[in-house]
């Protein structure tokens, strides 16, 4: 397995809009494209409380490429994303990493 960690850093006060978009739009589209999430987190203690961190689980880099590309190019996503940003940009930046579990990891 390959895990992808993604951290969305929101513009001030825009985290609720991002959470709503994931809950009402993004997750349904991920289901459509077979994208599996492994957890979502907000920051309780840390540098910023305007961040959303989540993990995705992939069988391979090829699976990620195929499914992620299909998702980001899905006309339904493009339209929904634009609609959710009618009141302004939500995300300042995104940081992601692709991770592989170690031999001793509880998550494989």
From TrEMBL:
Stored InterPro entries: Dimeric_a/b-barrel (IPR011008), NIPSNAP (IPR012577)
Residues passing through the membrane, by range: none
Pfam families in UniProt: NIPSNAP
Domain (NIPSNAP) ranges: 3-105
Coiled-coil ranges per UniProt: none
Protein's UniProt name: NIPSNAP family containing protein
């Amino acid at each position: 397995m390959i895990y992808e960690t993604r951290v969305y850093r929101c513009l001030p006060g825009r985290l609720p809009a991002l959470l709503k978009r994931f809950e009402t739009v993004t997750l349904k589209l991920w289901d459509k494209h077979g994208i599996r999430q492994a957890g979502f987190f907000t920051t309780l203690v840390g540098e910023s409380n305007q961040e959303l961190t989540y993990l995705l689980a992939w069988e391979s880099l090829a699976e990620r490429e195929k499914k992620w590309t299909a998702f980001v190019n899905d006309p339904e996503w493009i339209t929904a994303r634009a609609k959710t940003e009618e009141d302004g940009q939500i995300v300042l930046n995104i940081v992601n990493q692709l991770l592989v579990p170690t031999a001793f990891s509880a998550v494989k």
